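Title: Prediction job returns without error message
Component: structure pipeline
Severity: low
Priority: P3
Assignee: unassigned

Description:
Job completed but the reporter wants confirmation the result is attached to the right record. Sequence as submitted:
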Amino acid sequence: MTRKTVRLTMAQALVRYLCNQFTEIDGERVPLFAGVFGIFGHGNVTCLSEALETVQDTLPTWRGQNEQSMALAAIGFAKAKRRRQIMVAATSIGPGALNMVTAAGVAMANRLPVLLLAGDTFANRLPDPVLQQVEHFGDPTITVNDAFKSVVRYWDRIVLPEQILQSLPQAVATMLDPADCGPAFIGLAQDTQEIAFDYPEVFFEPKVWKIPRPRADRETVAAAAELLKTAKRPLIISGGGVRYSLAEEKLAEFAAKHGIPVVETIAGKGALTHEHPVHAGPIGIVGSTSANALAKEADVILAIGTRLQDFTTGSWTAFSQQAQFISINAARFDAVKHRALSVIGDALETVTELDSALGDWKADERLLPQAKALFSEWNALLDEHQLPTNVPVPSYAQVVGVLNRVARPEDTLIAAAGGTPGEVVKGWRVKNPNTFDCEFGFSCMGYEISAGWGCALAQEGPGGTGGTPIVMLGDGTYMMMNSDIYSAALTGHKMIVVVCDNGGFAVINRLQQAKGVPGFNNLLADSRIQNRENPLHVDFVKHAEAMGAKARKAESLADLEDALKWAQDNDGVTVISIVSDAWKWVPGDADWDVGVPEISTFETVRAARAAQEKIRSAQRVGV
């Protein structure tokens, strides 16, 4: 029997394959690849763009303004979809490709899927060196695309058209694997994109991908149940894996049944609502006093879907030396950390099986009320810092409080680097599950506005909340990456952007001075500028309006509330700026291990070094 084939260029075949991949969200079959963010250059405009142009109704292409920002938008989309749908980010060779490396790092650190397609040099090398080619004298196979190898889960370079027959399915499987999820990169040699090949028709048959749910080893689940039953003061740490496994309801049911308080990581925040009966607050360096107090006293800690980053563990000072960990994680690499009893499996399935293994066992009935009492004290502290006052310059906490009150339950709060994460992780009171996105796995300045655009796209289909992305960021981050205000305005997607103008990089200035170094090169007033007494400030309102947004400057907290209500009624993008205090922060009580000079002429640095050594003496010994 003759194999049926269809003759297509490699670029055409790649696009046809993407168009025929599907998944299911809430019982509805939807395209696995929801669209493409693309910037075209000579490395992809003549072939890949030709293929994409013909499928605009099936696989829409959205024009980005910067390769990094459009890949960040793809990541924001994936997070809002909880890894069940994927966007593509496509760029030409050279600088365009390298611009995406930072975004690949964001996806890699946060275990999020995005397909990165970059043009590459000529496979035949006949016209070498081509425009934007960086030559390595001792190895002509190296191009700038090799830079992605350290920040992606899957990497390939297509130099023969038939290679996509093996490469594309592997890339998709990697991005959908809960244990190995992350970005996939494929470099497309310019001359290979143009080559026609007789592809087997079966390669393009529609396929519905199911995200696997690996079950844990039964004996390990039983061992975890036995260890948990010995606990006097157990604690659950809920990580991002709970959200991506869609295990929120099961976790809440499990915790309530067995009387165990739940604290959340940064990525895990939003699995439970703020007022849920088992919720005891965020844990760690940007966490709550309630969660950190529970962590310090816990004897058995059930960590679910978390990679136990230093901001969660207080650089491993948040727990007692005697505490024992049970780690449920789809990824073996994460599950075995710090001598944990490793239960390798899907969060939803494993919690279900652990629930069965525990039977009617329940923790001390006094534990949950004690946790809620601690959480009430934390909420009172938040109220103290968030309530509006007549201060001329409001704090971040007060801005968060106003945003939180005005936000609708279905709206999603988006934040990333700078001072914002600490304030929103501590102070944002989640009203509905899956409405909080703080990118702090990579702490990437510039993620916020781009992710807002991606999140807005994600709300349109199944799995979306139907709400509006509310982006909160500082002036320093705004200056670093703001062009997707224009992107969202162009495409008609709605988001609200709140810019807290505190005169520079305020939170890193806080860390710098806390470790004894005089303020230097972070706040504008401490930088090498023409006029330190009156630094030049950006008019964020005029800047945003120039990119097609509606904009307003809030002069007070009351004005901010009015502006936010106005923004809720607007279509498209609304930007609100407000001057905020660079020195006031909600207090925290967890330690952080950072490098402090061993010797210094500053007495303040020497004192900070002594304090840092004390922190290190309290760290748990582990791996």
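Comment from assignee: result matches the submitted record. The chain has three domains: 5-208, 218-374, 387-579.
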